[in-house]
Amino acid sequence: MHQSREPHPDQGLPTTPTGPGLIGAQRPAPSALPVPAGAPGGPPAVGGTPAVGGAIGRLADTVEELRRQLDEAQAHAAGRSVVEMAVGVLVERLRCGPTEAAKQLHLLAEQAGSTPLELAAGLVNRAAADKISEAARDFVARAASPASTGVGVRLRNTEADALNAGDAAAAARAMLEHALRPLGAVAVAIWAARPDLSLALAGSAGFAEAEARRWRHVPPGVVTAARRALDERAPVTYRTLADATVPSIGRHEAGGGRVAVPAGVGGRLIGVLEVCWRDELPDWSQSLHRQFEALAELCAATLENWAGDVPEDAPGTGRLDELARLVDGILDPCMVLEPADDGFPPRFVIRHANPAFVDFAGRPTGAVVGSPLLEAYPMAAQEGNLLEAVEDVHATGAPFKDPQMRLTALVDGVPLSTDAYVSISRHGRHVTVLWRLADSTPKIARLLHHAQRLGRIGGFEEDLDTREVVWNDTLFELYGLPPTDRPIALERLADHAHPDDVDAVGRFLRTLLHHRRPASTAFRLQRPDGVTRHIRVVAEPVHDRLERLSAVRGAYQDVSAQHWTEVALAATRDQLAQSEQQAAERHRLVRQLQHAIMPPSAGPRTLNNLDVAVRYRPAEKDHLVGGDWYDALTLPSGQVLLCVGDVAGHGIEAATGMVALRNALRGLAATGAGPAQLLAWLNSVTHHLTDNVTATAVCGLYDPERRRLRWARAGHLPPVLLRGGAAECLPQVDGILLGVIDRADYQESELALEPGDRIVMYTDGLIERRDQGLYASLANLVSLSEAAPREGATALDAHLDHLLRFSGADTDDDTCLVGIEVR
């Protein structure tokens, strides 16, 4: 149980014994001067013996005692501030003076059985409407224990200590000692968010000095726990930092639980509070969340007035920030260099590049900033080049200008040079380099890089004097070698070529090295991994000022894809030619079959008192050869069989199906059955005896003695009757296509004919058009029939020719016609 004591007569501040859960408790005031260890009245010496080292030991004890007194004074000041705030609340509510309010505070504390400090924290929490009061109320509602009052005391002590200190480092120590150690935390860091998206360590506690100094600046783009909290605008927790994939301060010292809470003012995030544990993170609760929000609010209040205590020459701070803002307004490409160490010669790092910066090697700005100068531009170390000028400016401070400096960069291992106006100046310990490129070299560099990548082109250069060979990265990939291997000289090219290509490689080398003329050849490259690539190599000799052959440069290109494409195309051409030949042969056979059965035209025949003429017009395109057929013959019964049909499809299958149906109908007609029965039988034949064949047909039997025509149709177009100069389509009778179903019934019609009557049976190739319907096409056929010749011995033939000539069909299909005229 806590014990209370009387307050100091001047301050009205209670003193309480220390103990867990009550941070900020007061100790008895020490004497003015500390007593050395081992002296009378002073602290005992270690082990009961005099302090080691005599005067030095006494000095160490004195320093330790002074440190203890300082801690007590700080705790005393924090508690006094909380009590003074509570007295102010009572003055306002009780309408009394400060002395009476202080007495009432102590009286209430005695009646409540608590200390004046605890009661003061409770009064302030109830009167305030901030994060600390919310945290206290939340903890009381959930815990309802004596320790619940301690939360408010700890947070108010932290607030008082942090605000009185006015220093981010002191605020971090106050948070750790008053509020976070009771939660098991061992360290705390306060981060300030900078405009360039970097983080600065404004204050910390619990970390080694070297660790804090190492983390004083976090560059932009480095994902840490604090950066995640800023980006997500919400607290970020880790059960253990060792299991996380993000770096942060104190990873080895406090690699346990970690909490990062964003700190802001007025909706603007200005920093992050990061709390560290040595063990796993405590169970996360709403109470902890409230407490960390309250502490983050204190961080924001501290950072709001923080001017920055990071050294001026630290990366990303002080002078560098000012210099970056200055060069950002320059219209020419400019970068800021900083020496990375104090060695000689200094090693420069590219710290910043302005928005107008253009890398003449074609790389994006992000690939250059942050890299050492010699890593981004290795050729800058050449004598009389960029690095030497930068070192002179940094050493002497004298500005440097060159209206035509030669800048060189490596693009995929190939040197790329350009002339530029260069200006270099020193600003403190930083150096600015401004260049104005003389041509479109960056664009050319990008085009060269993409052309090499897309075309799988590898460049090389071989110095014939030093025997030094330079390859770019693509060439190592073409040879199947790692970039660390030694490039292969031209004289060893034949060792890596297919044996059948050695002669071609020899001719290439003789032309290039002995005749000193540009040369090219194609060969098969045999790689160490067993893969064979088809390569084309082009090279040219390089002469010095004395016209002596000094070097050879050129390029290899992987043309394997092109080679295999040509091989595939050749095979496809052969296969296509063979297919075309087979198709032509099939079409020729179909034509011969159709012409053998149905000649394109046949003169009129007389069957009893009936004149018969037929026409067959094949399709103009061979691949559209179809299955149209006709027949006209006298049966044993004396009747005349007239029929026209069309098998679906084209090609040899349609032609063979047509032959089968035509012959089957002839055989069935010999039985003497009527047209409807013949079509029913022919439907069964089509369904069972052929392979997936369907067809349309119209079948008629003409009785010469009675001059009567009986006819039936199976999905076919109706015949056209021409009588007395007027034409009409015969009324359609029911009948389904042949071959669709196993059994089908067909309707039969009978027509009495008169001398001079003409009837035309036809297939759809005569009338079909793509731009009009069936009824319009039939109407057009009727009109053409009425306009056809009607007199003369060859009038029937002229009638059929007239229909073929003027029908206007545009489907390029086979066409069959059968015309009859009664005498």
Automatic annotation (TrEMBL):
Q: From the UniProt entry, list the residue stretches annotated as the region Disordered.
A: 1-53
GO molecular function terms listed in the Swiss-Prot or TrEMBL record: phosphatase activity; RNA binding
Q: Which residues form the signal peptide?
A: none
Q: Where is the composition biased (Low complexity)?
A: 28-38
Q: Residue limits of the ANTAR domain?
A: 63-124
Which SMART domains does UniProt cross-reference here? Answer: ANTAR, PP2C_SIG
Per UniProt, residues of the PAC domain are 519-571
Does the record carry Transmembrane helix as a key word? no
**Which PANTHER family does the protein's record reference?**
STAGE II SPORULATION PROTEIN E, STAGE II SPORULATION PROTEIN E-RELATED
Its name, as the record gives it, is: Serine phosphatase RsbU (Regulator of sigma subunit)
Instruction: Say which species the protein is native to.
Output: Kitasatospora cineracea
Lineage of producing organism: Bacteria, Bacillati, Actinomycetota, Actinomycetes, Kitasatosporales
